[in-house]
Design brief:
Shape: globular
Distance between the termini: 35 Å
Number of domains: 1
CATH superfamily: Vaccinia Virus protein VP39
Structural class: alpha/beta
CATH architecture: 3-Layer(aba) Sandwich
Number of helices: 7
CATH topology: Rossmann fold
Order of helices and strands: HHEHEHEEHEHH
Strand content: 15-25%
Number of strands: 5
Length: about 170
């Protein structure tokens, strides 16, 4: 979505980004396509997107994935997403906090990949929630604040090294 489209959609909805939800809306289509490319989506994949907002990433996902589950906490945006993707029966939209979604539901839906642009305060809990063993999620592509990324990649005996590093950061090697 372009900045103009984002502003028009928000005006139509009579809303603005909510700071308490850490909302920001991606307007760079090249970046959106690149982020989705990192998921390496195959036609049989099921992609779960946390906090799709107005669907800037979702539009790229829906075009490639076998099925998509969009989890949006902000009720002001859920109706917009349902209208936007109404013509696609492979898109499932949930109005709830991602931490209330049971990832085990994904086992019956095939290979699952996770996508999200996460606010700082909920990044670690969401990663723990969706990576807890046994996890149906085979790949996660999450944009996050620099501080969280540094914790994920921290080396032992450094200030940033901790539980998140052990459970998530070092899981991939």
């Amino acid at each position: 979505m372009t900045r103009t489209q984002i502003n028009e959609a928000l005006e139509q909805l009579g809303t603005r980004p909510t700071k308490s939800l850490g909302q920001n809306f991606l307007h760079d289509q090249n970046l959106a396509a690149w982020i989705v490319d990192q998921l390496e989506i195959g036609p049989g994949d099921h992609v779960v997107e946390i906090g799709p907002g107005l669907g800037a990433l979702s539009e790229h996902v829906v075009a490639r994935a076998g099925a998509s589950t969009l989890i949006e906490k902000d009720g002001r945006l859920v109706g917009y997403l349902r209208d936007r993707f109404a013509a696609n029966p492979s898109v499932e939209i949930h109005h709830l906090d991602a931490l209330e979604y049971d990832p085990r539901e994904l086992f019956r839906k095939g290979p699952a990949k996770l996508l999200g642009n996460l606010p700082y305060y909920v990044t670690s809990p969401i990663m723990f929630h969706f990576a807890a063993e046994p996890s149906p999620v085979s790949r996660m592509v999450l944009t996050m604040q620099k501080e969280v990324a540094e914790r994920l990649s921290a080396s032992p005996r450094t200030k940033a090294y901790g539980g998140l590093t052990l459970v998530i950061g070092r899981a991939g090697g």
